[in-house]
Amino acid sequence: MPDHPGAADQCPAPTASTVSAGSAGSSGSAGSSVSSASSSEGQQWLSDDPAPNRRFLFFSVFVLASALLTAGLVSWWLPPQPRPQLLLIGLLLALGFLLAEQLAINVDVRSGVSWSITFCEIPMVIGLFVAPFEVVLAAHLVAGVGTLLVRRVQDRILYNAGAMVYEIVCAFVVMHWITTAHIGPAWAGALAGALVAPMSSTLLALVCVRVLGRRMRLNAAVRLVLRTLVLGLVNASTGVVGYQVVMHAEAGWPLLALALGGLSALYIAYSGLLREQRDLEALSEVSLMVARSGHQAAAKPSLGLTGPAEAAEVPDTDEWQVIADRIKDQLGAARVVLRLRFDPQLPLHTVVSGDDLPAEMHAVEATGSRADALLRLPGSHVRHFRRGDSIPEVRHALLRRGADEALVVPLRSASHLLGVVEAHDKLSRWRGFGQADNRLIGTLASHLATAMDNRRLLATLRHDAYHDPLTGLLNRPGFRRAAGEPLRQHPDSVVLRIDLDVLSTVSDALGYAWSDRMVVAAGRRLRDALGPEVALARLEGGQFAALLVDTDPEEAHAVAERLRAGLAAPYPVDRLTVEADSVVGYSTPRTDDGETSSLELDVDALLQRADVALRAARAGSDTVRAYLPTMGQIFLRRFQLVTQFRQALESGQVKVHYQPKVALPSRQVLGVEALVRWRHPEFGRLDPDEFVPAVEAAGLIDALTGFVMDQSLIRVRKWMDRGLRIAAAVNLSVRSLDDPAFPDRVAAALERHRVPPELLTLELTESGVMADPQRALPVLRRLHALGVVLAVDDFGTGYSSLAYLRQLPVDEVKIDKSFVLGMGTDLGDLAVVRSIVELGHSLGLTVVAEGVEDDAARDQLAAMGCDIAQGYLISRPLSESRLEAWLQARTTQARGLRDETVLTLLS
């Protein structure tokens, strides 16, 4: 019979009641310590079934009543056996049974069954030889029930008393039958009876397990019966041999003592091995339970909450209860208390297994002046306290707990207290906690502390993997993880993308610290506006994303406007207040392009659609835009253009057209401007304003510039071979001015095509130069040193050109065509053009007018002294073949001053 209940295998709920189904006198009896909670296979108690403890109570009453009735019948059936000194014999038998009970060895088996190994067959065999049925039964009951009362397992007394009665009944019935049948020697009946007794209690225990609704595999049950049979045979044989030696051998007592000593040594060694096995299993189970609890806590979906409500949540309370139950059963303690700290800033959480803990002892402090004496122990080793020999404050702490004895071990990580494990009062009070218990709880505590620390570290790592370190909100993977399942369950949802402006300006002016503070403040405003249940993430920079569950587009638009209003409130930044604008794009899983409808539940795809809507809103005048399928087609087309551009250069889809430039008023053709054209096989003719920005953003502008420059120099070289000195102008990108190696590539191209540098003009936009003049100036100076003509395109549209123009090593300025087109009807445009012409001449620059489309404009420019005209009045951009035809048809040839051919435009 076990002296403490075994824990249910992997039981997910705390044990409500346990039952020891073996009797006190059974050697190898199946002391089934059966949990009333659900089994490891997930078996649940049916709602219409009685509770497990009530079912066990009914079964126990039935077992005891039937056992007493059977005992009465057996007592009436067996012939009386008057023997002298029955009282003394009864007391000695009771003492023998009691001693056998105290030497019991408890072994846990699967499905929550505890198996007890005792020496009860030895006094039972002796009783079968020397005492009548009633005396043996009384001695067995006194020893067994008394042991249960001392160990405070009153809930199992009825069942175990019935099992004890059945053991004695079966033993005497079998012995009487074999004896009267004269089967075997005289001692065969006693041996068989002593062997049947533990078998009866074992079979009864298996029935009890079944009654409680627990499952036990057939092979485990068979192993249990076989072990009971083997150990019962060993103990019963020992008892028979001992009786025969004492009664018939000369000086048999010493031989019996030696035999019993050897058998006891074997059992003690076996008990040690079993104890070590149980301890290892307990260590493994506790570590796995904590690790599994950590995995479940870390895998719990989060919405990016950072408030104390989420941090204060104590995860997996049932798991910790099972761990406490397992430690209690392993130690044989009346009570085990786990005090756990899941966060350094939170109080200890208390889990109790066994006897109730006084209410005032659940919430105790571990630090400060009012800290409990057992919770402020230094180090992490085991302390063993007894109330009788402890210092006053420890004695007071034990009194408050209602405990006479306690094992206490703190759980510590490298930096702080993780908790405290307390074990109160050994159930076997006559021996108390021993060295094995100290080692076990110390090792358990060490494993528990390591597992808890690993659990906390794993939870921290997983939290960091799915959360933004700056704001504490979800990051992109975390948003993908938190929004995936809600999207599948609620297709009528909306994904928002919010982009906060001015962060780059704040970073450039005051540093990243202040922009980070703005991002944190913006995240708080979004969280307050959306509430704690909405999945909210910071993607990167000032970009946020949110999932609105069960929200239609109209409601999402209203929410987006409300969020923009909240984000627009001024932010305190370094003694300043900064107002930040924001743009919102949103998308829904359901899209309808007019002909077909689709359902997109992929989070990344919805984020991409919301980003497309956000870019469309930024490009337009709206600040909140919903995704439309046409937006995706525009960006898809742009993506196709970028990916196909290099192939287009190699296959001849990209061509260079030329627009002539003539001198005023001589009408001499001085040069051409090279303009790129792309005829796409699928999209047809593409406007440069569509594909050039995309190519530039993709980092392919150097390939485009190099292609146009090579084609232009080839054309110039052909003209030079015919005696014509016609220059070619090529437009530059801002990226070219950022490349220190660009002047070297220009020089190599001029040398490769054998073109003088003065016949190559490089046009750069005013805004491109002004974006970073200090970085562009070295490149411009090197180009100017090569002899290349530098021109400022679209002059007059910038905001600081007059301040920097005199510092730039340029040779030409090109008046933006918007001024030239409007100067015939707008006196302001006329004044701007005249001012630019005068400014350019005052600085010694050549002035070129773009957009000349009528004779009046040409005459006005000539009157102002403008040097060169370019526009539709002269010619549209022409392909190479058509340019040659134009030159032959619209110009006349003459010999120049340096013996070159001069082309003059016909009027």
UniProtKB/TrEMBL annotation:
- Which InterPro entries does the record associate with it? Cyclic-di-GMP_PDE-like (IPR050706), EAL_dom (IPR001633), EAL_sf (IPR035919), GAF (IPR003018), GAF-like_dom_sf (IPR029016), GGDEF_dom (IPR000160), Nucleotide_cyclase (IPR029787), Rev_trsase/Diguanyl_cyclase (IPR043128)
- Keyword flag DNA repair: no
The alphabetical list of record keywords is: Membrane, Transmembrane, Transmembrane helix
Task: Tell me where in this chain the GGDEF domain is found.
Answer: 491-629
SUPFAM superfamilies membership: EAL domain-like (SSF141868), GAF domain-like (SSF55781), Nucleotide cyclase (SSF55073)
List where Low complexity composition bias occurs.
15-36
Question: Locate the EAL domain: which residues?
Answer: 638-891
Q: Which Gene3D superfamilies match?
A: 3.30.450.40, 3.30.70.270, EAL domain
Lineage top rank: taxon? Bacteria
In terms of Pfam families, this protein maps to:
EAL, GAF, GGDEF
Region annotation Disordered: residue ranges? 1-36
What's a single GO MF annotation on this record? cyclic-guanylate-specific phosphodiesterase activity
- Residues passing through the membrane, by range: 56-79, 86-105, 125-150, 157-178, 190-212, 224-245
Q: Which PANTHER family match?
A: CYCLIC DI-GMP PHOSPHODIESTERASE PDEF, OXYGEN SENSOR PROTEIN DOSP
* UniProt protein name: Diguanylate cyclase (GGDEF) domain-containing protein
